[in-house]
Structure formats: C-alpha cells, structure tokens
Amino acid sequence: MRSMFHGPFSATKPVKLAFICGILFVMATLSVRATGDSVSKIAEDPLCAQALDWLGKNTDWVTAQQIRLTEIPASENNETARGQYLKQLLEANGLTVHVDDTGDVIGERPGSDPSGVILVAAHLDTVFPPGTDVHVKRAGTRLTAPGISDNGAGLAAIAGVSRALAESRIRTVKTIVFAGDVGEEGEGNLRGIRALVEHYGSRLAAVIAVDGPSTEHITTQGIASRRFEITVTGPGGHSWSDFGAPNPITALSRAIVRFSAIRIPDNPRSSFNFGVIDGGTSVNSIPAKASVKVDLRSEDSAQLNRMETALREAIQTGVRDEMAASRTFASENSLQVTFRSLGMRPAGALPENSPLLHTIRDVDRYLGNRSRLERSSTDANVPLSLGIPAIALGGGGRGGGSHTLGEWYDPSGRELGLKRLFLTVVALAGIQP
Ligand SMILES: [Zn+2]
User: Fold this and answer.
1) 125 C-alpha to center of ligand 1: Å?
2) Mean of the pLDDT values across residues 303-311?
3) How many angstroms does the Cα of residue 145 sit away from the middle of ligand 1?
4) 36: pLDDT strictly greater than 90
C-alpha cells in the first residue's frame, strides 16, 4: 500500500485517498448507526413488540415442540418423519411449505421484494443410529435425550420465531425462508444446505444456521473438514492353521497408532478423529477386511492437506509393516488399501465489516447479550465458502453432552435466544412501511 504514494501522482493521491477514506469512514459509521437504530426501532414497532412479548410468554410451547421433534428419530438418511412434523408446524404458522428432492422442509414467508431472501436453517438429522432411545427424560428443568440440543434447540427456535411472526402479522421487505435441512451430521456432507443454497442462489441476502442452544457465540468462520473411509482387505484365514497371514485389523491398528503420534498444531487449530472401526467375522478367523472412518479438520487448508498426506502415509506404512511382519510372503497374500472420500466441507469466513455481523452485534448490544466470534463446522460453511453472508447461532437455553447418549438441554432463559434470532431475522428482512 505504501508504494502507492510514490510516482507522478504522489502529490494528489494521498489527498484523494484521505478524502475517500473519510467518506468511507462516515458511510461505515452511518450504516452501523443505521442498523443500530433499526434494531431498537424494530423492537419498538408495535407488531414486533407484540411478537417479542409472545416469545417471552410462550417458551413452554417452544419447549413442548422441541420435545416432540426430539422424540421423532432422525438418523442419517431418515429425516422424513421429523421433517413432516416440522412441516405441520410451519404450515400452522401460515408459511407455504414444501419438501424438496433432497428432503429439506422449506417454509416461505414472502416479502414485498422477492429478489431478497433471508434463509434461516436448522438441521433435522442427528448422529444417532436407528433404534437409539430418544425419549426425553425430565429431572427438574433439565431434559435429557440424544439430539435434544443438537439440533432440537435449533429446530424449536425456528418453530418459535416463525410462530411469533405469524402471531404479530409483521410484513417484511425481504422473503424469510425457514428450513429444516437434511444431511448435516455424519456422512451427509451438508447435502441439504447445499441444495438450499443452490436453489435460492443469488437471491440469498443472508443465511443463518441455527445449531444447538448457546447464545454466547456467533460462528463467522467455517472450519474445513475431510472425511474418509479406509478399507484394508487381505486373504483372511483360520486363526491357527493360517497364522502368520497379514491381518487387516492389525494393519489398520498400526496405521492408527502411527498417525495418532503426529503432532497436531494448536494454531492453526486442527483435529482428527477415528470415529468408526469395523471388520472381522469371528474371534478365530483372520479377517479378510477391516475399515475405519476418520474425520480431519483444520482452520487452515494447507494444514488440512498436510494431515491428509500424513494419514495416507501412515496407512501405507501400517500396511507395509504388517506385511513385513507376516510369515507368508506369497503375493496373493498381500493386503490392499482403498481410500473413499465421505465428504469435504469447504472453509469460508464472514468479513469483519459484513452488515450481517453488524446486525447481530447490534442485536446483542440491544439485548445485553455478550457473545464472541467463533469458528466451527456447520451448515454455514456452504454459503460462506461461496461468499454469501452467513453465520451460525444457537437457539437459546443451555445444553451439553452433544453427540453422546447423555445429551441434555435446559430451557431456562431460552427467550433470550429466541428474541435474538427474531430481531436478527427481522432487522435483516426489514419491516414494510
Ligand atoms: Zn448440529
């Protein structure tokens, strides 16, 4: 930048630049103040005040919907029944609802300007396999069930906010779309949100992913991830008579130990997880096949590349070591490896000066909510990777034990999250005069 001041225009450019910078500064200040004003103005609008009042008084209704939704199992690729219940809820709130080819439930609330869309999406799916007991248990104010927070809290929030809009009959400028999307967890590879973003395309003014309960963060950066299934096959055999043949489970174990010894940096923050391991048929058979599923993540794509390379090397070395240790050297006894991609989540970041970020910060200021910016891997990754303004927020209340059978949720104070989402959506959509 400094070199710009040299050369034939060195006398005029600094002046021009200072002038332009001055204008930009004033514009930035004005636009920030304008959104700031509009949040308190929105909250004071009689219809909005009525909606906020409804949210404050009806948190029990929202919690009841969360329990209903959570008790409908929604494992990977089995989101239809839960989606149907959400469809009923959104229809009861006056939205025009349809289910797309991917399985996303999409409720539209048309604005006066159809060229702008605010998409509010909560994922329907859970990480829990079919057959998991999803009955909600109560102890005091605490609710316990797999999926109660992730993403019962997000789904309940869109049910509550769309109901508050219906109760108050607010008319907005931009169209608001509430969606329950499929394929966020596990191997879904974000296919639900991908379909939504593709469908609305350039009409998307902002995307809000509502995931989990916490109101203490604003997710503005999407962490890149890569997921693989690695399969090792071999000759198999009898545990006694074929002893010494290479064993796919032992080969994978060598590889996992090897990769796990690699130093993973704190900065850029990165992680790995061997999440599922499979293989073998009986205790006295040398397995003919074993596989492992692994998830790699990093804030930095170069680091993610290095981790993938290291993973491939560790697997090759593990297999080589197992073959070297085996007592049978015939070529038909060798091990084979296949790598299968289970999904790649693209990275992306919301710029610091984004109007969307100004809006949510103004809402937090108005509500007296303290929040910090966060990086995570959510539905927001997809729009962020395409340069579409997006954030992920929690739906309100408190929770923990996500992705475990002990997952819990406490609705105490959930109206803060509901009002936060409501004000953000309405501020972004704009009220019709
Ligand atoms: Zn989630």
Assistant:
1) 8
2) 96
3) 14
4) no
* pLDDT tens digit sequence for 410-432: 999 999 999 999 999 999 999 99
Using the mean position of ligand 1's atoms as its centre, give its distance from the Cα of residue 407 in Å.
Answer: 12
The C-alpha angle 102, 107, 111, rounded to 5 degrees, equals 130
Q: Would 18 be classed as within a structural domain?
A: no
**Domain membership of residue 351 as a residue range:** 30-223+347-429
The conformational region for residue 143 under phi > 0 = left, psi -120 to 50 = alpha, else beta, is: beta
Q: Of 326, 345, 364, which residue constitutes the final position of a domain?
A: 345
Q: Are residues 338 and 354 in the same domain?
A: no
User: Does 316 share its domain with 402?
Assistant: no
User: Which DSSP category does 390 fall into?
Assistant: E
Distance of CA 46 from the midpoint of ligand 1 (Å): 34
Cα-to-centroid distance, 369 and ligand 1 (Å): 22
427 token code pair: 């501020």
Q: Domain check: are 58 and 153 in the same one?
A: yes
Q: Using the predicted structure, report yes or no on whether residue 4 has a pLDDT greater than 80.
A: no
Taking a 5 Å cut-off on Cβ, the residues next to ion ligand 1 are: 150-151, 211
- The overall average pLDDT reported for the chain is 91
Separation of 126 CA from ligand 1 center, angstroms? Answer: 8
Q: Show Cβ contacts of residue 44 under 8 Å, excluding neighbours closer than 6 positions.
A: none
In a domain, 416, yes or no: yes
- Say if CB 188 and CB 260 are below 8 A apart: no
383 φψ region: left (φ > 0), alpha (ψ -120 to 50), beta (else): alpha
pTM of the model: 0.81
Query: What's the Cα-to-Cα distance from 369 to each of 44, 51, 413, rounded to whole Å?
Result: 18, 19, 12
